[in-house]
Amino acid sequence: MNTSDVNWPLLVDRWLAKRPEREVDVLRELCDRYIGPTLEYLASKASVPPVSGAPPTQNKPSQLRHVVSVTEMGMVNTLLTLVEVSLQVFVFLTHTDTSVNRDIFSHDTNFDI
């Protein structure tokens, strides 16, 4: 088995299959909107703009790099775990059912990866 056989969309599909049916459409939309583009951006070796007011020797773009080596599958698995916990906390704090609030979780999902 290699990465072409098992990739992050399959991981998302497996995770969504375990979620309540009323959540699946919204969560799939959010995963499609954010995960792929974020992973592409991270893989592109894009640079981070310089910090405003930094000394001239540090005022140039720097390449993105992982501090700890991690695979795409590892990043997506971590994201899905964080979203799942966020949903549980949301339900606990609001004493509501598990209906997903698109606005709340689209904001959180954007920053989890």
Distance between the termini: 25 Å
- How are the strands of the biggest sheet laid out side by side? 1-2
Q: What order do the SSEs take from the amino end to the carboxyl end, as H and E?
A: HHEEHH
For the sheet with most strands, the description reads: 2 strands, antiparallel
Helix content: 55-70%
Helix and strand content put the structural class at: mainly alpha
Report the count of strand segments: 2
The total of helices stands at 4
Give structural attributes:
113 residues, mainly alpha, two-stranded antiparallel sheet
Summarize, please:
This protein is mainly alpha-helical and 113 residues long. The chain has 4 helices and 2 strands, in the order ααββαα. Strands 1-2 form a two-stranded antiparallel sheet.
Care to describe what's here?
The protein has 113 residues and is mostly helical. The chain has one domain. It is built from four helices and two strands; from the N terminus they run ααββαα. It has helices spanning 8-17, 21-43, 72-94, 102-112, and strands spanning 47-48, 62-63. A two-stranded antiparallel sheet has the order 1-2. The longest helix is centred in the first third of the chain and has 23 residues, at 21-43. The mean pLDDT is 78.
